[in-house]
Amino acid sequence: MEIETRSEGAIETACDALIVPVSGRSGVEAVGGLASDLAPEVRDAVAALVRAARFAGKPGSVLSLTTLGRLPAGRLVLAGIGEADGLTDDGIARGYGAAAREAREAGAREVVAVAPPALGGDAVSTLAAAVTGVRLGLYEFTAYHGSARQEENGPKEIERLVFVGEDLDPAAIARGEAVAKAVSLARDLVNEPASTLTPAALADRALEVAEREGLEIEILDEAALADLGANAILAVGAGSSHPPRLIRLRYRPDGAAAEPERVVGIVGKAITFDTGGYSIKTYEGMLQMKGDMAGGAATLAVMSVLRRLGCPVAVDATICAAENMISGDAFRPGDVIRGMNGVTMEILSTDAEGRLVLADGLVDAARRGATELIDLATLTGAIVVALGDGTTGLFASDDRLANDLLAAASGAGERFWRMPLFAELNEKIKGDIGDIKNSGGRAGGSITAALFLQHFSEGLPWAHLDIAGSARTDRTGPLGPKGGSGVPVRTLLQYLLAGTASA
Ligand code: BES
Ligand code: MN
Ligand code: ZN
Fold first, then answer.
1. Residue 391's pLDDT is what?
2. Same domain for 186 and 145?
3. 45 has pLDDT over 90
4. What residues make up the domain containing 18?
5. Among 379, 382, 399, 403, residue whose Cα is nearest residue 471
6. Ligand 1 atom closest to Cα of 440?
7. pTM for the whole thing?
């Protein structure tokens, strides 16, 4: 699908569907304000329809109507974007996402959309949000659709979507596209089966991205990991015939100093499949475990668009890729692993493997020169029990970092909730023969997991995002189908771009 812009003629253009943003009943007048392009009689008709259908214009809700030939457009799709006095980029993204899905479902091929209103004078950010919303709303993972399904879906594809409004900035389109591209990459990787997305295959994907997007990359194989002393990643991957990889990516802004003052280190958990190892999971528990590499996927996705978006901050990424399987070589409960910083880890559960690979990744990122660390991981079932589906648990040793991440999440429309790091709970992970145990039991399970990681944060400002409940969704929504969600890509992009024209 092509996305284009035009300065006028939304109503006059013949098309299959016309998308009009609507702020709902309480803001019927806003239809006029938002859609300045609409002729008065059309505006009145839309307002009457909105009232008659009691359409509240909630973000992500749509009202789809045939025009019975009274407009050049065959169908009118009203996109709810939220209350007129409380508009957000996220509400706009959801509205256009849902409307685009609805138009595609109705078989539309040529679509015209009235551009969203400017928010606080910023028309670039709302148009970018609308573009991201459309792309994410239309996202599908079709790599494994058989021929029957392809034929069934084939005709349902929007060919062109034209945003109509005055002085629409092409840079907004490019920005919206880049954000959606990153989120879609993270979704694709999460949705890909573990049989094809092995640690080495993930490293290959990272190599392609790095070459295309102007990033430096280093891929460490088993031998290099042994030289480095990355014993934890090696232990977790030992039971698999697909050996582990540590992927280092490096982004420096154009014209950056050789030794930048600030380097954000992002560390992603990429367990390409988590059986639990000898502490084996149940049937139910194993079902979604091809997605246990979502932290690494989001890390690669974020890195993939930093140059296009003109990110002003240096970023070093570390992706810890391994498969947690069973064999005669697999690690066992009772084993002790010496971490790269000398801290020894006593294995209680081979299913608490994420914190082990991150232990090596965090120390590696710190050694490479990060000045702050953010790790992303589908780390604990306990965070899902605590916060429910769809919310990311944020743990941080540093309030500045925590608050900036929370602000970025709220701007990006991803739900985050800060969790405590009660130091007393370190008692629960005190080791018997090693320094720390890799499981602190059920109570406070996501907190003890975070405290474990803190032992490898090397005194740097550090944040840990537990995305076990948010990296995938079971429900189709305005911003896409069930499966990989791409969380927390949008938040991290917002965080890294804060203070720039792109944020
Ligand atoms: N990958 C899982 C966590 C997970 C659970 C992610 C559900 C997504 C959905 C992780 O490796 C794990 O198994 N954690 C254990 C830790 C326990 C053994 C201390 C858990 O949460 O049960
Ligand atoms: Mn596990
Ligand atoms: Zn896991």
1. 98
2. no
3. no
4. 2-165
5. 379
6. 19
7. 0.97
